[in-house]
């Protein structure tokens, strides 16, 4: 078993060349080349693996096949941590009996589940990687460009992943922040698998209604309470973003208001938590100004315009770094 610890970021297509240049020029960066990865994601008709919070794929690369299952993990901000098991195979259909028996719930007929597996969707992309030594750790940075395919539907993949190969997970954030100062990024909440299930119609549709109100920040709250407020506000920020991407412009006004409220709550919570840190305050003010300018413009506000401002992703990453520490 490997414990996969990675930070997922979304980028915009027009920034690919700049990103490659930045990664090539980072200190202690070793380009690893690129390869084409084909991935079929499997589950039963009633999504038994999904209900166990497991993800199963068969990956093809360099004329090899490998089946992988990821079991229940955690996500903090954009940091994904999940146990995974990888086994080389000779056929495109996975065989669940090859995985350790200890990962399955008691009393399950794994052979019967294997027989009922079907490919739900595919993710096919070109992956370019770098190995970078940073703060005594080794991080693999992967740029994935391709698409998710479910039947006749598809959507693009434009992602940047920072995966810990050795050392401490704390090295992921400073490295990502150093990249984000030059290339606009934003936190990736949904994995390729989550997006694939959504595209295939195997997950509930993304809600479009405004979310419930956030709790009010009180004076002199405890450090523990402030950290929880920051974590909740960051989670809310990503949820509002997600709803804005699927909501018509005419229905977006309450969501834009909530986005502003999230960032203001982050700013005020961090100020109370660490009043001497003016960097976060300046970042938050910059992002707030950009969002307010976008929402008062004559044309419809555009998330893509905001995402292309480095301060937007930098603020998200700075909060995640604080939460991890």
Describe this structure in words.
With about 325 residues, the chain is α+β, with helices and mostly antiparallel strands. The protein is about 35% helix and about 30% strand. The protein has an 8-stranded antiparallel β-barrel. A hairpin with a 2-residue loop joins strand 8 and strand 9. The longest helix has 22 residues, at about 225-245. The chain is globular. The model has no long low-confidence stretch (mean pLDDT about 90).
How do the strands and helices of this protein lay out in sequence?
Layout: E1 2-10, H1 16-25, E2 29-43, H2 48-51, E3 55-61, E4 64-70, E5 74-76, E6 79-89, H3 110-115, E7 118-134, E8 137-150, E9 153-166, H4 172-180, E10 186-187, H5 192-199, H6 223-244, H7 253-273, H8 278-296, H9 303-307, H10 310-324
Helix pairs in contact: 4-10, 6-7, 6-10, 7-8, 8-10
Q: Separation of termini?
A: 26 Å
For the largest beta-sheet, the strand count, sense and barrel status come to: 8 strands, antiparallel, barrel
Classify the secondary structure makeup into a structural class: alpha+beta
How many runs of DSSP E, i.e. beta strands? 10
Mean pLDDT: 90
From the alpha carbons, calculate the radius of gyration and give it in angstroms. 21 Å
Give the strand order, joined by hyphens, for the main sheet. 1-6-4-3-2-7-8-9
Residues in helices, as a percent range: 25-40%
* DSSP helical segment count: 10
Looking at the chains present, what oligomeric state does this protein adopt? single chain
Strand content: 25-35%
Backbone shape: globular
Low-confidence stretches: none
Order of helices and strands: EHEHEEEEHEEEHEHHHHHH
């Amino acid at each position: 078993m490997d414990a996969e610890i990675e930070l997922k970021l979304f980028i915009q297509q027009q920034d690919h060349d700049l990103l490659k240049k930045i990664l090539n020029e980072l200190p202690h960066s070793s380009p690893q080349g690129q390869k084409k990865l084909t991935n079929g994601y499997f589950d039963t008709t009633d999504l038994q693996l999904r209900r166990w919070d497991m993800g199963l794929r068969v990956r093809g690369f360099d004329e090899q096949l490998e089946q992988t299952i990821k079991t229940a993990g955690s996500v903090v901000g954009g940091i994904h941590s999940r146990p995974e098991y990888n086994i080389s195979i000779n056929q495109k259909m996975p065989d669940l009996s090859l995985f350790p028996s200890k990962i399955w719930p008691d009393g399950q007929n794994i052979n019967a589940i294997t027989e009922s597996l079907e490919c739900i969707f595919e993710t096919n992309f070109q992956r370019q990687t770098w190995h970078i030594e940073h703060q005594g750790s080794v991080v693999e940075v992967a740029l994935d460009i391709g698409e998710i395919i479910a039947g006749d539907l598809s959507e693009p993949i434009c992602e940047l992943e920072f995966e810990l190969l050795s050392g401490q997970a704390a090295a992921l954030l400073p490295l990502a922040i150093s990249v984000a100062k030059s290339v606009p990024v934003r936190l990736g909440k949904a994995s390729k698998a989550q997006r694939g299930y959504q595209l295939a119609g195997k997950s509930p549709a993304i809600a479009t209604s405004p979310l419930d109100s956030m709790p009010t920040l009180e004076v002199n709250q405890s450090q523990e309470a402030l950290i929880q407020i920051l974590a909740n506000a960051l989670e809310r920020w990503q949820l509002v973003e997600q709803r804005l991407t699927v909501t018509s412009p005419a229905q977006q006004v309450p969501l834009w208001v909530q986005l502003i409220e999230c960032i203001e709550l982050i700013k005020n919570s961090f100020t109370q938590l660490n009043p001497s840190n003016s960097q976060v305050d300046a970042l938050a003010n910059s992002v707030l100004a950009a969002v307010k300018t976008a929402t008062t413009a004559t044309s419809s506000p555009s998330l893509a315009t905001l995402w292309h401002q480095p301060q937007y992703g930098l603020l998200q990453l700075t909060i995640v770094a604080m939460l991890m520490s």
